[in-house]
Design a protein that fits this description.
By secondary structure, the protein is an all-alpha fold. It is built from five helices and no strands.
């Protein structure tokens, strides 16, 4: 049952592209747009119900939060590292990384 994978991928990609284009091209709130396409008792309403019942909103919020927290912690750790080693002679030519991590990096290496 279902579509062949290449067809399914194209359908999902174009669905997201279309939704994003509509969202960017309007000043309307996303909830208003969702309500415009959700008929009471219809397929979209049923699908949204299943997503809400399964905890989709909470799962997405948790995923965004953990991503933010991980990035925040990484940035804080980097800042702390830089402050601790600011005047250290063990830093490499960039002045940001220890010699063993800094060797061979050119300015255009990224």
């Amino acid at each position: 049952m279902g579509f062949p994978r290449p067809t399914a991928v194209k359908l999902v990609q174009n669905t997201f592209l279309g939704a994003a284009a509509q969202a960017v091209g309007t000043d309307r709130h996303l909830v208003q747009m969702r309500n415009d396409i959700t008929s009471p008792g219809g397929v979209t309403a049923a699908a949204l119900y299943v997503l809400e019942k399964g905890g989709m909103r909470t799962t997405l919020m948790d995923a965004v939060f953990i991503g933010f927290a991980s990035c925040y912690n990484a940035v804080c750790a980097s800042i702390n590292f830089l402050h601790r080693h600011e005047k250290s002679s063990s830093l490499g030519k960039s002045g940001l990384l220890p010699d063993h991590l800094d060797s061979g990096l050119d300015d255009d290496s990224f």
